[in-house]
Design a protein that fits this description.
Elements lengths: L4 H15 L22 E9 L6 E7 L6 E7 L15 H4 L4 E5 L11 H15 L6 E11 L1 H12 L3 H4 L12 E5 L5 H8 L5 H8 L9 H6 L14 E6 L7 H13 L4 E6 L11 H12 L4
Parallel strand pairs: 3-4, 3-5, 5-6, 6-7, 7-8
Antiparallel strand pairs: 1-2, 2-4
Length: about 300
C-alpha cells in the first residue's frame, strides 16, 4: 500500500514542470542550528522530531528561497503501515513552488500497532509548528498529503487530531491540526475494507498488523479509531481533496466514495475525483489538480 518509487519520481518531475523550472542541481544539505535561529534555504535531512519509546523518528525538510513564512505540506508515505520511508519522496519540486515541504517517518507495525503511527504524525506536525521560526514556516497554513496508508493517516490528522489518544503526547505545546488534507487511494473504514479485502494475501496481513495481530472485526474499537470515517462530524474539519482510481485492485474505490459522502453530509468541503482505469498507483495525473487545491487553501489571495 505504498506509492511506488517511480510514482515518487514522476510526482516530483510533474511538480517541477508545473513550476516552470529545471532541476538544476541538488540543493545544499545543511545542518540546522536548533535554537529558533532562521536557517538558509535548502534541504535538511534526518531531523529528529521525536523519540517515542526509544524509537527515534526523523523527517526531511525542504525550505524554499524567498521571503517567508511559507505554508508547509507534510507528506506521509504509504507502505501498508509496515514499510516505506520518508526517503521515498524528494520534495524539492514542491519547495520550488513556495512551500516548506516535509517528508516524515513514523513507527511501522513491526515496532508498534495503531495508534503509534498517527501519534507520530501528529507529533511531527507539532514539531514543525514549534520550530516554525527556524524553518520559515507559517504555523497557520499546514497541509497533510498522503498516499494509500499515508492517506489514511493524513485523513485522520484532518478529522481526529483533537482526540487525546490520536494526538499522543510528543512535542506538547502546539497544535497538530491541519488546514488541508490530500488523500490518494486511502483506506477509510477498516471494518468495511476487511469485509471486502480481508482475504487479500497482501492487504489482509497488513490490516491485522495494524490492529495488533487480529482481524479488524475482532478489534472493533481499535479498528473504528483507525478509520477516518468514524471521526467525520466529531469536530470541524479542513477541506479535503480525495483521489482514487476506479480500477484500484488493492483498496476499493468505495472506500473513498463513502468517506466523501460522509464529509459532504457533515458540511465539510470535499473534492472527490475518481480516475477511470487507474489502479492503486494513480501516477502523475492528479498532481496538477492537487497543487491547485493546495494553492487555493494554503495560499489565499492577500
Amino acid at each position: 500500500m505504498r506509492l511506488p518509487w517511480y510514482t515518487q519520481i514522476v510526482l516530483i518531475a510533474s511538480v517541477i514542470a508545473l513550476a516552470g523550472c529545471g532541476v538544476g542541481g541538488s540543493p545544499a544539505t545543511t545542518t540546522p542550528v536548533d535554537d529558533q535561529t532562521p536557517v538558509a534555504p535548502g534541504t535538511y535531512r534526518a531531523l529528529a522530531y521525536d523519540r517515542p519509546d526509544g524509537h527515534e523518528q526523523l523527517l526531511d525538510l525542504w525550505v524554499p528561497a524567498g521571503r517567508g513564512p511559507f505554508p508547509v505540506v507534510v507528506f506521509i508515505h504509504g507502505g501498508g503501515w509496515s514499510s516505506g520511508s520518508r526517503t521515498d519522496a524528494d520534495l524539492a519540486g514542491l519547495s520550488s513552488l513556495g512551500y516548506v515541504a516535509a517528508s516524515i517517518d513514523y513507527r511501522l507495525t513491526d515496532v508498534a500497532p495503531f495508534p503509534a503511527q498517527i501519534q507520530d504524525c501528529c507529533s511531527a506536525i507539532r514539531w514543525l509548528r514549534l520550530h516554525a521560526a527556524t524553518y520559515s514556516i507559517d504555523p497557520a497554513r499546514v497541509g497533510a498529503w498522503g498516499g494509500s496508508a499515508g492517506a489514511q493517516l493524513a485523513a485522520l490528522i484532518g478529522l481526529a487530531s483533537h482526540d487525546a489518544i490520536i494526538a499522543g503526547t510528543g512535542n506538547p505545546g502546539a497544535s497538530s491540526a491541519v488546514q488541508a488534507v490530500v488523500d490518494y487511494s486511502g483506506p477509510a473504514d477498516l471494518i468495511a475494507l476487511w469485509a471486502a479485502k480481508g482475504g487479500d494475501p497482501l492487504l489482509g496481513p497488513m490490516m491485522r498488523a495494524l490492529v495488533g495481530g487480529a482481524a479488524p472485526p475482532d478489534r472493533p474499537e481499535l479498528s473504528a479509531m483507525a478509520s477516518p470515517i468514524t471521526w467525520v462530524g466529531t469536530r470541524a474539519a479542513p477541506p479535503f481533496q480525495i483521489m482514487h482510481g476506479d480500477a484500484d485492485s488493492l483498496v476499493p474505490v468505495a472506500q473513498s466514495q463513502a468517506l466523501a459522502r460522509a464529509l459532504l453530509s457533515a458540511g465539510i468541503s470535499c473534492e472527490l475525483t475518481i480516475w477511470p482505469g487507474k489502479d492503486h498507483d494513480l501516477g502523475a495525473d492528479p498532481i496538477g489538480p492537487t497543487i491547485l487545491f493546495l494553492d487555493r487553501i494554503l495560499k489565499p489571495p492577500g
